[in-house]
Automatic annotation (TrEMBL):
Forms part of the ribosomal stalk, playing a central role in the interaction of the ribosome with GTP-bound translation factors. InterPro entries: Ribosomal_uL10 (IPR001790), Ribosomal_uL10-like_sf (IPR043141), Ribosomal_uL10_bac (IPR022973), Ribosomal_uL10_bac_type (IPR047865). Belongs to the universal ribosomal protein uL10 family. Keywords: Ribonucleoprotein, Ribosomal protein, RNA-binding, rRNA-binding. It comes from Faecalibacterium gallinarum. GO terms for molecular function: large ribosomal subunit rRNA binding. SUPFAM superfamilies: Ribosomal protein L10-like (SSF160369). This is Large ribosomal subunit protein uL10. One of its GO terms (cellular component) is ribonucleoprotein complex. One of its GO terms (biological process) is translation. Pfam families: Ribosomal_L10. CDD domains: Ribosomal_L10.
Amino acid sequence: MPSAKILSEKQAYVADLKAKFDNAVSGCVVAYGGINVENDTKLRKELREAGVEYMVVKNTMLRLAVKGTSVEGLTENFTGDTAVAFAHAEDPMAAARILCKYQDGDKSKKFVVKGGFLEGKVLSAAETNAIAKLPGREGMLSMFAGALTSTLSGLAVAMQAFVDKQEEPAA
């Protein structure tokens, strides 16, 4: 039986993890096996720069943290070596995008995205990989601006053609 001090520390840690799950817009659960120290350092740096919290956590602590929450379905992913990444409102897809990109480039095929969550809904590994392929906020805005510009320029050409036709002399 653990001492009261250790037990209270673990309870505080689980409460902190639960708060991270509650405050995150999205996140990913990964099996981080096969990653060497150099690549792990690069991955963590890239995640940090994108505003993503990434940590290796004991599966028992994760199970306790998600118990009774909307993402309790993630429990089935908490086996083996597990790391969790939490993304926030600035770029909700950052965690999935970075971790799935690393997974695709991993030659050992031991670094695997097990699943994820988005706005309180649990996602499978396939759904997480699909979301990772979506463009970021800036990409979406530029696509919208491009579509809007092409629509407006098409409208202007059509209006000019109509005006030109009205000005033609009747033959």
